[in-house]
Request: fold
Amino acid sequence: MSDIKNALDLVRSRRSVRTFDGRALSSAELDDILGFANSVETPYDLPFTWRILNAKENGLSSPVITGTDTYIAGKMVRVPCAEEAFGYAFERIVLYIQSKGIGTTWIGGTMDRAAFERAMKLGEDEVMPIVSPLGYPAARMSLRESMMRKGVKADVRLKFEELFFRDSFDTPLQEADASDLKDTLEMVQWAPSAVNKQPWRLVICGDTVHFYEKQSKGFVDGKGWDMQKIDMGIALCHFACGMEAQQRRVEFSLKDPGIPAPAGTVYIASYRIL
Ligand SMILES: Cc1cc2nc3c(=O)[nH]c(=O)nc-3n(C[C@H](O)[C@H](O)[C@H](O)COP(=O)(O)O)c2cc1C
Reply:
């Protein structure tokens, strides 16, 4: 990310693309994407396996995607914090792909999951959280895509004072008072999330920003896998990208500061700005 304006523009220009124009990506483009994916690191320091998959060759489908046969998918060993780590890594990849003018959509639910997992040769101890189509956006969205966007209000986000707080959850942060964190917080605000729930809540205490997850019902599966923790990884990624774009160094930690949090809101991680 060259500077904060470019980073913010990149985040603001991204949207889920579900209708593609049918043009296939070249093998050079796909190699470049895979090369970038393989270079991504996260503060959780966990390994991933990334693959480009062809829908026709592997019998893959998603009912919400039209106009492309190409997908990217990732898998990893199911360990604590896998969700946040995956969210962080995949969003880095999504933003890179966006910077090339290529469209993506995070897909965790609306796909033939069994077929994708077979294509990824998923092991017993592994999880394949998300896949994304890859391709060039069509000039017009399908009716289904427009309806989906309306259904989750995909073009809007919660306000600063609903997402961000100063010192404790009792003091909402107004956008006008965010001073030199404003652009980075705006990048967090505009992150994508499952069903656009935006579960991230940030409490800023001096030079440290604590990330919390406001949990909604229905996102944890029978094995304890929490889809909204993937959203939290995305929020952490956007914050880190904003800091990088301003040449500000950060230190990551998992030390819960013990700030009293509302019921159903849990601590995830912190960034100290150095
Ligand atoms: C973890 C995660 C899972 C998602 N799963 C799906 C999905 O299964 N199907 C789908 O069409 N969109 C899915 N989305 C996309 C969201 O609906 C979308 O990001 C959100 O509505 C905001 O819209 P935007 O991406 O256009 O900004 C998912 C997003 C995230 C972050």
